[in-house]
């Protein structure tokens, strides 16, 4: 501010916002991220503007998740305050998405699609969540980003469960399992086995359910995860 560096002030405000978000001070975080947005728009800095929109989305997303943690409920069954907070997150992600499309930034589009999928899932809009996660998946494959691809499969599996499409969920969870083995991530592998066990229980294929729950158990014991 002293040297009149507006872009620098904008970036510093954005960093403050992200730090306050991590500290759980969501309202203060929004104020700082909004300053980042205002200055970026004033300076015609499209990249900064896109980043600020994404960060504000993240703050509302984190706040929504934080508020809903206190109530163990299924996605979609949310109190008004939580719903409104997640809808705000979704709006900012949408604005970010249209701007990064304009800028031709595919990696940023991937992140926006993933977050839109997650917020729509929490809001109980499962078909919308699926559409966003499919876009996320396509971009992850484009970049050869195996970790993002794995997350997309997992999220697609979860959303199909709530639409009672258990057979489709099982296919997505199998792809999650395959990738978690490729990535040598045992905790995620265990989680995928657990999801498959539950899905086969819903499909009333109890032999296979047992098989996957046993695999989950073995990895949990290996990891010493009580």
From TrEMBL:
rRNA-binding found in the keyword field? no
Any one cellular component term from GO for this entry? Answer: plasma membrane
Task: Write one Pfam family the protein is assigned to.
Answer: TPR_12
Q: Where in the cell is it found?
A: Cell membrane; Cytoplasm
Q: What is this protein called?
A: GPSM1 protein
Q: Which GO terms describe its molecular function?
A: G-protein alpha-subunit binding; GDP-dissociation inhibitor activity
UniProt cross-references to InterPro entries, sorted A to Z: GPSM, TPR-like_helical_dom_sf, TPR_rpt
**Organism lineage:** Eukaryota, Metazoa, Chordata, Craniata, Vertebrata
Q: Where are the transmembrane segments?
A: none
Which UniProt keywords are present, listed alphabetically? Answer: Cell membrane, Cytoplasm, Membrane, Phosphoprotein, Repeat, TPR repeat
Q: What is the protein's major site of localization?
A: membrane
In the UniProt record, the gene name given for this protein reads: Gpsm1
Among the GO biological process terms of this entry, one is: establishment of mitotic spindle orientation
Spans of repeat TPR: 150-183
The record's family statement is: Belongs to the GPSM family.
Q: Which domain of life is it from?
A: Eukaryota
